[in-house]
Write a structure and sequence with these properties.
Layout lengths: L1 E5 L6 E10 L3 E4 H8 L3 H7 L4 E4 L6 H16 L8 E5 L10 H9 L5 E5 L5 H15 L6 E8 L17 E11 L4 E9 L7 E2 L8 H5 L6 E2 L1 H23 L8 E4 L4 H10 L11 H4 L6 H11 L8 E8 L3 E8 L9 H5 L1
Parallel strand pairs: 5-6, 5-7, 12-13
Antiparallel strand pairs: 1-9, 2-8, 3-4, 7-8, 9-14, 10-11, 13-14
Helix pairs in contact: 1-2, 3-4, 7-8
Length: 348
């Protein structure tokens, strides 16, 4: 089932006002992973394209990483946490099932009085949470700011003996602050799709009422049918790009930045060539942080925003894939307001 919307609010649109990201301190190189798996390090570099990833330490929970990313996004946007109307957290690896990451995050950053809840669409969660945040602003003109955060710690569910998954994943968090921007800027279109018939393509986490024997047998480990997932990405990535440019009346070359879920950098490069995207158009972070699940798109967005690649007016396409299976796209025009307000410092 798919859902497609043309985004907008009365008198304008919703756009990204600031970005942030947070990574664990521990770096794990592919040579170390290759040694653990008993494979040649060149196999990881050539087949997957990951050189390094970050693994969370015991105290680096999904909510802790989310807080680090959120505070940076709020600072970039110039929005005090107390002015947030909602906090939406995308994660499939919460600290605990109850309460959600968003509630912990709300308390930690001081966003008291805001709505706070989690969204779980696995690795695709950020775009689902982004559309939820946009919808909250569109539904109520009195709301001004929504914080959308994606944070995951998949390293805790990896099987160190599984070469199909262990080299792929890392941990991290990314965040954006959404607010109102002039019409024609910000989020312009979104398409989200879920097909539960593919739900067994990727699974993970402990089953309900897991027994000690099941845990000992690895029931909580992430499992993935890599071939099925790759075939879906290879089929849908070109369509997502093609449909976007047709809707906007532009060509693929007119996309300034394509930021995709970093499932596999080599796979993304292959997909990009099928629709004539140049390497300069892709934002690749998976080579140094691996697949950070729901956080991969906002981490890429933050990297490109902070290094100056994204400029006002740029055409930005976000593409995501995740278990469920769920996938989709969001197209936006980068607003002039992004990262250019400084009310926190001025009011300090």
């Amino acid at each position: 089932m798919s859902a497609e919307v043309t985004a907008g609010v009365s008198g304008g649109s919703v756009g990204v006002l600031g970005t942030g990201s947070c990574l664990p301190e521990q770096r794990v190189g592919s040579a170390e992973v290759a040694n653990l798996l008993g494979v040649d390090p060149r196999w990881i570099a050539e087949r997957i394209g990951v050189r390094e990833r970050r693994f969370a330490a015991p105290g680096e929970t999904a909510s802790r990483l989310a807080s680090g990313a959120a505070l940076k996004a709020l600072e970039a946007a110039g929005v005090p946490a107390g002015e947030l109307d909602a906090v939406v957290a995308a994660t499939s690896t919460p600290d605990r099932p109850i309460p959600g990451v968003a509630a912990r995050l709300q308390a930690e950053i001081g966003a008291h009085g805001s709505l706070a809840f989690d969204v779980n669409a696995s690795c695709a969660g950020f775009l689902f949470a982004l559309e939820t945040g946009r919808g909250l602003l569109a539904a109520d003109p009195d709301r001004r700011y929504v914080l959308v955060v994606a944070s995951d710690t998949y390293s805790r569910y990896l099987n160190p003996a599984d070469r199909r998954t262990y080299p792929l994943f890392g941990d991290g968090a990314g965040a954006v602050v959404l607010g109102r921007v002039p019409a024609g800027q910000g989020i312009l279109t979104t398409e989200l799709i879920t097909d539960g018939r593919m739900s067994e393509y990727a699974t993970g986490g402990p089953p309900v009422a897991t027994t000690p024997e099941e845990l000992a047998g690895g029931a909580h480990h992430i499992a993935m049918s890599g071939r099925d997932v790759a075939e879906l990405v290879l089929a849908e990535f070109p369509r997502l790009v093609t449909d976007t440019v047709k809707e906007q009346g532009i060509e693929p070359a007119d996309l300034d930045h394509v930021i995709c879920h970093q499932a596999n950098p080599r796979l993304l490069e292959s997909c990009a060539r099928t629709v004539d995207l140049a390497p300069r158009q892709l934002v690749i972070t998976g080579d140094v942080v691996a697949n950070t699940a729901s956080a991969s798109v906002p981490i890429g967005l933050d990297v490109a925003a902070r290094d100056g690649r994204i400029k006002p007016g740029d055409a930005v396409l976000l593409i995501t894939f995740g278990a469920g299976m769920s996938w989709g796209r969001t197209f936006l025009r980068w607003p002039a307001a992004a990262g250019q307000t400084h009310r926190i410092k001025e009011n300090a």
